[in-house]
Structures are given as structure tokens and as C-alpha cells.
Design brief:
Layout lengths: L1 E7 L3 E8 L4 E8 L8 H14 L7 E5 L9 E2 L10 E2 L1 H8 L3 E5 H12 L8 E6 L3 E7 L2 E2 L31 H5 L4 H8 L8 H7 L6 H9 L3 H26 L3 E5 L1 H4 L2 H12 L9 E4 L6 H11 L6 H7 L5
Helix pairs in contact: 1-2, 3-11, 7-8, 8-10
């Protein structure tokens, strides 16, 4: 049996043909459309699925998407980090292919993929966290995938970790983990970090001249020994992530937390050491083991397909609901 996994990110959409055992047959990566109406994203996905399958029979389509979601409608009502803020997913795709379509948050899909096929296999209390453009999570408690009333029971990126921060998250809130530590927001945060400070630093000099410094540039400067990048990442950013992870451990009491997303996977040792340095200052329960996904960028398409390969009990009601789109 062959399934399609669709990973809808803020910047890229990844689509894969996935076997029932979770192995990848073929895949494609495309950029998010920068403009259009609420059907544009789905139309881009439909076109890419047709090209990828090239007549191959598919048994189901799983979609893991950035959120927040409205699962009952099968849509993303407002995506803070995506070019098109509101878009349909389920209805246009199920009408086109007439197979089971199941939608979940991208990190929700990833945790299900780890639970079925990855390092979380057999672990009933498991969290997956992605560190990328945003920060998101998927959560399994006692073998049950958490969903919530609209599909947002796991939006840990919007945990408030600094009530005094005036840095605004993309969602509009203040002091959120994502607002202070995600790839999209780090360039703004470091500008606040340097206020009333001075460094012998190439990054610092660029910032005081009003030049943009990207997240990737800051991490590269860290490895080059840049004074500001070292101070910001070691003493601020890693503490932010430790606080966020401690909140996750305190709330869900997982045995294992799997980290993914480009920011974590490109800096594994830095994240491992930096988080460990601060975590015990904030965690109230027995700390979970922390590891990194072995699927790399493929975790998104594998996890999305996993939702269709073995539909979680907590999402089955939506499968029946989406079939009404065909009537």
C-alpha cells in the first residue's frame, strides 16, 4: 500500500510517497506560494501530488500543516508565518483524489510518525518539538494523541515564558516561546538583546548600523567565535529553549522528547549541551530523555503519511466528517 504525506510548512511544502512501513519511495519540495486565495495552497499540492504519483494508486493522504488549525473545517484559519494566511486543505484535496484524507498539525503528525516508525516507537508518553521558522509540538500521553477542540492542544510555541517581554510573537501575543526563540524571530530578539550593551563583534557592528542579520548568520558567527553570537546563544537563547522544554515536561510528563526542525538538527551538539546547562533550574518532574529525530527533514512527510496509515483514535471523527465533502 502507498500513501501520500504532505508537510505544509511556512516556507516550503514537502510531499512524499510513503510505503506502509514508513519508508520513502519518492519526494518533492516546493516553495509556499507567496500570494493567492484560500484555494491556492491546496491547488499547488494537488498539482504536485499528481506529478509525483504519475498514475500510481494511493491508499490515503495525510497532511501535517502549520497552524493554528480548524480541524472541523479542514483549514488553516490564520498562519502567522506563512505568506497566505488563510487557506483550505482538506476539501479541495479529498474532492480531487477521493481517498481518505486526514489533517493534523505538522508537529502532531511528526510525533505520530516517531511513535509508529521512529525512535519513539513503543513509547506511550512522547513529545516531538520542531525548532524552525516557528516552534511547534506534537504530544502523545498514555498512547493517546492529543488533539483539542480545534486541533491545537499542543501549541507549545505560544507558552508564555517571559511576562515582561514586549517582543511580539507572530500570533500577536507577547513573551511567547516562539516569539523569543524561533528562527523567524531571532533577528528581532537579538536587536533587543544588545540594547545598553557593547561587543567586539562583526554581528554587533552590523546591527548597530541597522543592517539585517539572519538567524543562520548568527549561528555561523557563533561557530566562528563571535562574541555577541556566543553570549546571545549560550546565555539567552539556550535558556529560552530550556524554559520552554521544562514547561513541556512539567505539563505532559513525557518519557522522551524528540527534537527536529532545521534549527535544532543543524546544531545538535549546541542544543544538547546548551539545554542541559539550564534545564534543571526549571523542571519540576523527572526530566525526559531528549533526542533528535533520525528522519531529518523527512519526518514531516513520514509523519503526515503516518496519520493516514494508522489513523489516531482522536482524529477518526474528522475522517468521517471530511467524507461529507464528497456528497
Amino acid at each position: 500500500m502507498v500513501y501520500v504525506g504532505v508537510d505544509v510548512g511556512a516556507t516550503y511544502i514537502r510531499i512524499g510517497l510513503i510505503r506502509e512501513d514508513g519508508s520513502v519511495i519518492n519526494k518533492v519540495k516546493i516553495r509556499q506560494p507567496v500570494s493567492g486565495d484560500e484555494n491556492t495552497v491546496a491547488n499547488v499540492i494537488i498539482k504536485s501530488i499528481k506529478e509525483l504519483t504519475n498514475g500510481i494508486h494511493i491508499d490515503g493522504i495525510g497532511i501535517g500543516s502549520i497552524g493554528p488549525l480548524d480541524l472541523s473545517k479542514g483549514i488553516v484559519p490564520w498562519a502567522p508565518n506563512a505568506p497566505i494566511k488563510r487557506f483550505k486543505l482538506v476539501e479541495p484535496i479529498i474532492r480531487e483524489f477521493k481517498v481518505t484524507v486526514i489533517l493534523g498539525n505538522d508537529a502532531m503528525a511528526a510525533v505520530w510518525g516517531e511513535y509508529l516508525f521512529g525512535i519513539g516507537k513503543g513509547i506511550n508518553n512522547l513529545v516531538y518539538i520542531t525548532f524552525s521558522t516557528g516552534i511547534g509540538a506534537g504530544v502523545i500521553v498514555d498512547g493517546h494523541l492529543l488533539v483539542g477542540k480545534d486541533g491545537n492542544a499542543h501549541e507549545v510555541g505560544h507558552i508564555v515564558i517571559d511576562i515582561n517581554s514586549r517582543i511580539q510573537c507572530g500570533c500577536g501575543g507577547y513573551g511567547h516561546w516562539e516569539g523569543l526563540g524561533s528562527g523567524a524571530n531571532i533577528p528581532r530578539v537579538i536587536n533587543e538583546f544588545i540594547k545598553n550593551k557593547s561587543y567586539k563583534s562583526r554581528i554587533y557592528e552590523k546591527l548597530v548600523r541597522g543592517e539585517h542579520v539572519s538567524t543562520e548568520e548568527i549561528f555561523q558567527a557563533y561557530y566562528d567565535g563571535d562574541e555577541l553570537a556566543r553570549d546571545f546563544i549560550d546565555n539567552y537563547l539556550m535558556r529560552v529553549h530550556a524554559v520552554g522544554l521544562a514547561n513541556v515536561m512539567n505539563a505532559y510528563d513525557p518519557e522522551l522528547i524528540v527534537l527536529g526542525g532545521s534549527m535544532a538538527l543543524n546544531n545538535v551538539d549546541l542544543f544538547r549541551i546548551g539545554i542541559e546547562k539550564y534545564l534543571r533550574e526549571y523542571v519540576a518532574v523527572k526530566p525526559a530523555r531528549i533526542d533528535f529525530t533520525k528522519f531529518g527533514d523527512d519526518i514531516g512527510i513520514i509523519g503526515a503519511a503516518a496519520l493516514a496509515i494508522k489513523v489516531p483514535e482522536s482524529l477518526r471523527m474528522y475522517v468521517r466528517h471530511y467524507e461529507e465533502f464528497l456528497s
